[in-house]
Design a protein that fits this description.
Residues 5-232 form the ABC transporter domain. With 313 residues, this protein is of the alpha/beta class. It folds into two domains: 3-221, 3-Layer(aba) Sandwich (Rossmann fold), CATH 3.40.50; 227-297. 32% of the residues lie in helices and 26% in strands. The strands form three sheets. A six-stranded mixed β-sheet has the order 7-8-9-4-10-11. Strands 1, 2, 3, 5 and 6 form a five-stranded antiparallel β-sheet that branches. A four-stranded antiparallel β-sheet has the order 13-14-12-15, covered by helices on one side. Strand 10 and strand 11 (209-215) form a beta hairpin. Helix 4 crosses helix 5 (135-147). The longest helix has 16 residues, at 165-180. The chain starts with a strand and ends with a helix. 37% of the residues are buried. The structure holds adenosine-5'-triphosphate.
Amino acid sequence: MTYLVETDQLSKNYGDRAVVENLDLRVPAGSVYGFLGPNGSGKSTTMKMLLNLIQPSAGSINIMGQPMTRGTRRGLLGHIGSLIENPPGYSHLTGRENMAIVERLSDLSSLQIDRAIHAVKLEKQMDKKVKNYSLGMKQRLGIAMALAKEPSLLILDEPTNGLDPAGIDEIRGLLHDLSQAGVTVMVSSHLLGEIDKTATHLGILSNGRMIFQSSREELFASTIPNLLVRCSQPRKARELLAHSAGVQHSSEVQLTSTESGPAETVRISNMDDAGTAQAVATLVRQDIDVFDVRREEQNLEDLFRNLTHQGGL
Ligand SMILES: Nc1ncnc2c1ncn2[C@@H]1O[C@H](COP(=O)(O)OP(=O)(O)OP(=O)(O)O)[C@@H](O)[C@H]1O
């Protein structure tokens, strides 16, 4: 696999405090890499090191196969678009005037500028002053500024921060489209739900350390989805299963409602196939009718919770 961003043992200390520790980042070419972690876990610090805005205390960074150093910085940054912290742009100028500055400074063509504006769907807002933009529009303008030079890699630090659900959806759609167009996107967030479904790969940071890094599929495959059992006497079933030998010590057995089926279903976490067979046999032996046994669809929130239960965050 080709990695557009690769770090080895990347570390940053402030005084005697390690803020990023021994990070081996691997961002595959063509991926949308969701860089997740709670506030203060070191995401921004890492992204700033990738962009050579701050210097690592130890370790190395390779971008597009080249080491990122003070010497190579200029050449590499020509291929990287970024949005770090607050959206850029002069608020007393219009969107168009801001883009004209980007065009001149980076020596771009008007076609490149138009394409970037089109990609973020801001055509109709270009004559408005940026101070009158919503936060979502400001973020989109910031992304347009980053996109105009047609980068191979886009690094976005919390682009959905502070946006309403519609704004978050727009950014998600935009990231998806960019990825389809061949741009590799690295995007950070402290909220899993904002990256769920958009990211093809995930890196999860906790206290400056990577606690998980892989493709989204591998993350899902590495954990067992909850089991949902719809049956005739759910309360009795819950009691029986909570004390059944097939249920592992770390499992939780709860009563729950599901969108299908009547009021209550028994949900069991961390139950493998052998445990499932045993649980069904236990219920049938006790004259409980089992109508339906299925795995619950997993989302990242559940997986994140599982990871953190395993001593992560
Ligand atoms: N210049 C600095 N000097 C000292 N400590 C710093 C500095 N910059 C960041 N830190 C500390 O490093 C830790 C990681 O910060 P960082 O901004 O990288 O986290 P983050 O995961 O991006 O979180 P957030 O989403 O809140 O920005 C924090 O505890 C922060 O206070």
